[in-house]
Amino acid sequence: MARFTLRRVGCALLGGTVCAAVLLTPVQATATAGNAVFVVQTSEGKVRGVPGEGVREFKGIPFAAPPVAELRFAPPAPVQPWQGVLEATTVREACPQARRFGLTEESNVEDCLHLNVAVPTASRKEARPVLVWLYGGAFVGGSTRLYPIDFLAREGDMVVVSVNYRLGPLGFMAHPAFGTEANGGYALEDQRAALRWVQRNIAAFGGDPGNVTIGGVSAGAASVCMHLISPERTSGLFQKAIIQSAGCTFNMRSVDEGLRTGLAVADVVGCTDPKAALQCLRSKPVKELVDAGTVVAGADYLAFAPIYGNGTVPRSGAEAFATGNFVRVPILNGGASHEMRLYVGYEVAAGGKITLDNYQDRLRALYGDKVDTVLAAYPADRYSSVPTALGTAMSDFMPGGGLNSCLFLRTAWLASRWVPVYQYEFADDAAPPVMNDPGIELGAVHTSEMPYQFPGFSNTSVLDGPPLAAPQQELARQMVAYWSSFIHTGRPAGAGLPEWQPFDPSRQALRLKPGAVGMFDASGAHQCPMWERLYPQDLAR
Prior knowledge:
The chain is α/β, with parallel strands linked by helices. The chain folds into 2 domains: 30-340 and 399-539, Rossmann fold (3-Layer(aba) Sandwich); 345-396, no CATH class. Helix content is 32%, strand content 15%. The protein contains 19 helices and 16 strands. It has helices at residues 150-156, 168-172, 186-201, 219-228, 231-234, 255-269, 277-283, 286-297, 317-323, 341-349, 356-367, 371-377, 386-396, 405-415, 450-453, 470-489, 522-525, 528-534, 536-539, and strands at 30-31, 38-41, 46-51, 55-62, 85-87, 114-120, 128-134, 159-163, 207-217, 240-244, 253-254, 307-308, 331-336, 421-426, 508-512, 518-521. Strands 1, 2, 3, 4, 5, 6, 7, 8, 9, 10, 13, 14, 15 and 16 form a 14-stranded mixed beta sheet that branches. A two-stranded parallel sheet has the order 11-12. Helix 10 (341-349) packs antiparallel against helix 13 and helix 11 (356-367) crosses helix 12. The chain starts with 29 loop residues before the first strand and ends with a helix.
């Protein structure tokens, strides 16, 4: 149940250019008496959904065959058509993953390649734009169960699709025994199979297959990056992209580096014979593989990040955006002010000690011989606590990481040479917590904007996040209006909204803060000129 209520985003809120007419042309579905159920004919068979609050929802629709047995460690295969009507009334289980941070939920269900569709019930003459949403979770966790899509569909007057995809060793692991074309990219191929499903079927739900936006947060946003930089494989599948908290130009690992991770996982589970490795890995219990991935990854949260140099992702993000070799569509891009304070908070909550005595050593571990410069720029006594100081530096820039403000701005700088980019920063320091209180100042951390778009978001399927205060409800209204306008038109604008200017060399971004939404100097706020001097290879323009 939504923790706050907004009025439906209509013509006035979106500036009058999005929805010129709302007439009596229904979604291509049949309803029983009382609108209790809805049936839609897809290319694979009929599906029956259920009514929600101002929406029709179709849940748990298979878009690919179950990736089990001989289909484990293989690209997604077509789903077999079915007879009769599929009851699409329940969101299906998450793909296999371990419990993390004492918060997220474990799953050992491999038959997980399902998607959900939410369609507004209000009649509309034109087909609606489509948002395809990809969840986050560091490439090893997450599911569609964490992101209720009815709210955005209703308030944004759009069709919203959320997609499950394989995770960790089962989705992002490379191994010499796998096929070379998609080696390490099965999860991304899952997402592309879902995008092709949208092209085949979304018109039957009242959506426009020629007006599709792909969007995601964290690992889901990084996945959006991977689809952008692989035009050979994805051109025509989407017309706009939303990247929330992922630096597309992060230092991606090559296939060879990915193979080392895969071999390490195989070693942990005892599949070391090259001739028998594939069948051995396919025979292992799914939990054993997930647990092995956790052991191999350790503290490396990019252990199962996408790799490049295969058919799935031919090039790195840095190369693609520097040369213009990417899908050239409008981009909405950004993140939170203090992304990495979340992970510092997790460490403190787990008993980690970050003190004045070891602060310099912690900085040295991250920044090496540049530690003195960084220490001078981020003195511990400037902040409310030493962990907060460390998290601030990491959030502004951290070599090798993908969650930092200067990297977000580098993506915008490079991409804006070729396409319109709308850069934002979520800056509500009083946002509802996305973790248990660690006893330090967190502020606007990684994923803290999710409750503003997915009411009740709590990183669990319980969806028991706290309600938003009145000023935050107004910010949520503005955010939904901006995002909806972008999804409809490629430009985030609307009546009564502060102007969101496209990104340009001044590196201005739209700050999203209750009562203070407006453009600001994001580069200066995060000391990016200093970081560019220290790390020209990572932040080169």
